[in-house]
Amino acid sequence: MDTKKKILDVALTLFSEKGYGNVYVGQIAEGVGIKAPSLYKHYKSKQDIFEAILEEMRNRYDKEAAHLNMTGNDFLIDFELYNNISEDELVKMGIGLFSFFLHDEYECKFRKMLTIEQFSNKELAELFSHQYFNEPLKYQTGLLQLLIMQGHMKNEDANVMALQFFAPIYLLMTVCDREPQREAEALQILEKHIRQFNRMYKE
């Protein structure tokens, strides 16, 4: 593993264990096995390391989404995929994305860091809301609105539908973060949730 990548891995592990605010550049350097001046050759600050972690997370998510033949960010593009998807395919996609967010090292550790920091760091609290509330609901609301307009879903409030769909998924993820042994149970509930939601609203 090259030094730049190792710096990110060590930093994110420390952030997830201690919180972003309680980790110093010297600790990151020590974890990597280098001196702080050597670390600055790769990243100019702790904030620079943080931004690089965010970029790595985006790249990992984009790669996973592409594997599922979707963008995961642009509902206007992804609409065609959902427009013709079967219930079994929807379940497979939902479980695939759930498993990615649960097991991807960066996603998992970053979520734990935000959980620690949400009540002491205003910027990270806002980032937490952005990543795990605002953006998912914006994407899913837009997608559902298109499906309703095309007559594929019942004409109900898309904002409420998006919340009904996403909230249980996020809740199951947080349970698995705390109690990893409950993953099999969570996946069973997740499948039932996706199928029931689809049958409740699909035209």
Short précis:
With about 200 residues, this protein is mainly alpha-helical. The protein has helices at about 5-20, 25-30, 35-40, 45-65, 75-85, 85-105, 105-115, 120-150, 160-180, 185-200.
Q: Could you give the topology of this structure?
A:
Blueprint: H1 3-18, H2 25-32, H3 36-39, H4 46-67, H5 75-83, H6 87-103, H7 105-117, H8 122-149, H9 158-178, H10 183-201
Looking at this protein, list some descriptive labels.
2 domains, mainly alpha, 203 residues, Tetracycline Repressor, domain 2, 10 helices
Description:
By secondary structure, the chain is mainly α. It folds into two domains: 54 residues, Orthogonal Bundle (Arc Repressor Mutant, subunit A); 134 residues, Tetracycline Repressor, domain 2. The protein is 77% helix and 0% strand. The chain has ten helices and no strands. The longest helix has 28 residues. The chain is elongated, with a radius of gyration of 19 Å. 19% of the residues are buried. The model has no long low-confidence stretch (mean pLDDT 95).
